[in-house]
Amino acid sequence: MKNLEKPPYLVIAILFFGAFVAFLNNSLLNVALPTIMTDFDVEYSTVQWLATGYMLVSGVLIPVSAFLITKFKNRTLFLTSMVIFTLGTALAAFAPNFGVLLAGRMTQAVGSSVMGPLLMNIMLVSFPREKRGAAMGIFGLVMITAPAIGPTLSGYIVEYWDWRVLFEMILPFAIASIVLAFFKLENILETRNPSLDVVSILLSVLGFGGLLYGFSMASSEGWSDVLHVIGPIIIGAIALTLFITRQLKLDEPLLDLRVYKYPMFALGSIISMVTSIAMFSGMILTPAYVQSVRGISPLDSGLMMLPGAIVMGLMSPITGKLFDKFGPRVLAFIGLAITAYSTYLLSVLTLDSTYTYIVVIYTLRMFGMSMIMMPIMTNGLNQLPTRLNPHGTAVNNTAQQVVGAIGTALFVTIMNSQAAKEGASLVANLTPEQLVDPSQQALLAQQSLLHGIQMSFLVATGVTVLALILSLFLKRVNVSAEDVARIEAEEK
């Protein structure tokens, strides 16, 4: 694949529209899970599969995206993905029972899994390396903002409408995206005919699927569960080891892990993974504090996250331009410093922290996050030859899915274990009369959960500091004419 002389703005706009619809869907259901649980009379461990299953399917399919992008024309791939996504959305919207709803959600995941990698690869070939920062900043606007506004929109709809509206409102936009793509989308990416290694696909499904399933189930089943947690993690780890070994030996690997021989890509990928773990802490712990500790309504919970989403949306293109001017180290260091500080402030929340205080801290955290991910990812991808772009984006996306599951399990485990210890400690200091007092029991539950959340955020602070230290070793990838010529020469 070669860089284009002139960016195909219409093609990019159509892909942005489709990707925004798909990405918005990622976080749209989180606030609605309690309502769906009641409507279909299922347990939380069952209903959470609407979120966990979506992540599991995406995580299994993203490694295959590099092969699909190389094999099929981007117009065919986008149309097929959007049709599958639309069918899944319709299935979920009119689901008569939970099984059909889950099937629709899984179908959505199949369709949307290739959207991010496809759009990112078109962005990479559409703009010269020295201007990729600004372009990827616009991509970040879609990738970050769409999931960020999901909880706010979902909170409003769940409060005043039916949860099915979450799917019904997506349908016309998904259909419009298909119509636009059918008439206006052009083929941009060059294709070839790579061989498909079936063994690699099987190992990929077992490896990534096993790890994602095991870590996702740990939060509900506990770490001692052999069938749902320990077994899948062990199988996943063995399969992943075999998968990595096989990829390094194949001439045409399913996922080319040789991208890690490029130092800035490798370092950027590691920082991105560490940051993702910290980011997932906020996605899990903040709603737990707001709704379970403070008893704030779903709508107000969603509105609380809206300023942060707006800030991320506004900052994404600005961050891209700053990256082109200053490089990744300054941005990543400042962003991680702000994120670490704001995460620490979340670790000292109390039972009476004001609504405004929570909004300000959460927004500050999102401001810091907006300066991290896209600059370090773009800098790493700039070091890769163009032929490795599909593999670089697939590796980054897969890694984030896996560490997302690990991060979620880690922080839920810390929260639950610390809450249980605090609860036992508090109970020991109560009188028999206080133990049977309903108001005292409610306060005890709030204080215990708050302590668990505080400790989890404290661990997240330490994780963010680790990423902050690693960011000091970032170096800007030179994109002079000589360097570009040298990188592209590696393709021959």
UniProtKB/TrEMBL annotation:
It is a multi-pass membrane protein. The chain crosses the membrane at residues 9-29, 49-69, 76-95, 107-127, 134-157, 163-183, 195-214, 226-244, 265-290, 302-323, 330-349, 355-377, 455-474. PANTHER family: MAJOR FACILITATOR SUPERFAMILY MULTIDRUG TRANSPORTER MFSC (PTHR42718:SF9). CDD domains: MFS_LmrB_MDR_like. Belongs to the major facilitator superfamily. EmrB family. This is MFS transporter. Residues 11-479 form the Major facilitator superfamily (MFS) profile domain. It is found in: Cell membrane. Keywords: Cell membrane, Membrane, Transmembrane, Transmembrane helix, Transport. It comes from the Bacteria. One of its GO terms (molecular function) is transmembrane transporter activity. GO terms for cellular component: plasma membrane. Pfam families: MFS_1. Signal peptide: none annotated. It comes from Caryophanon tenue.
